[in-house]
Amino acid sequence: MNKNMIEVYYAEDNEQIAKSVTEYLNQQNCKVTSFGTIAETKKALISHIPTIILIDWNMPDGQGDELCRWIRIRWKDLPLIFLTVRGDSFDVVSGFQNGADDYIVKPFELSVLYHRILAVLRRTKSINESKLFCDEIVLDKTKMSVYYQQEELKIRRSEYQLLLLLMENKGKTITRKQLLEEIWDRNGIYVNDNTLTVTMKRLRQKLHNPPCLKTIRSFGYRMEDTI
Q1: What whole-number distance in Å separates Cα of residue 225 and Cα of residue 47?
Q2: pTM higher than 0.90 for the full model?
Q3: I need a surface site. Which of 7, 58, 124, 225 has the fewest CB within 10 A?
Q4: CB burial of residue 126 (10 Å; 0-12, 13-18, 19+)
């Protein structure tokens, strides 16, 4: 994907509206992925965070305000816009109270939607640069902290560096030799292979043995989303 492209997740159960929005925004420098249920949207967000998310209020398996609250608990800075037919003042206020950055009432002009997206992105900061995700693991590079199921973990520096290297290369297998060189040798600390094994064992235990952290026997390790 183009580095400057706006990646949009769109929770909308009306296929015709989702198609119209997707086709228009894809012509503007956006890459849109639409989801027909709240459950699908949550699953996608756990695996990957987009630039911005658009949410319809009335979904077949729940309401958009519930999804909005769920998002805000996990990612307070993810730009979020409601797109909904519910336009009375009570609903609009409720949308903002639940964490929306903007609220657009249907029907709307597609060009207006696009420019509202641009306006929200000018006001908000992207979280993609500072946070990495894999299943229910979140690594915050700014705070140098790691979370599992929203709970911050106490980890050692070497464990953090090991996880950071693997999450920055999610989907790729990193060899044991590469890990030893990047985490210890480059800092002038020369250790034997067993140090990596012990560090990985401690990290796995603290992360509750996550299935997304895979061992490639006699070779290395790989992080990849499983949910």
Answers
A1: 6
A2: no
A3: 58
A4: middle
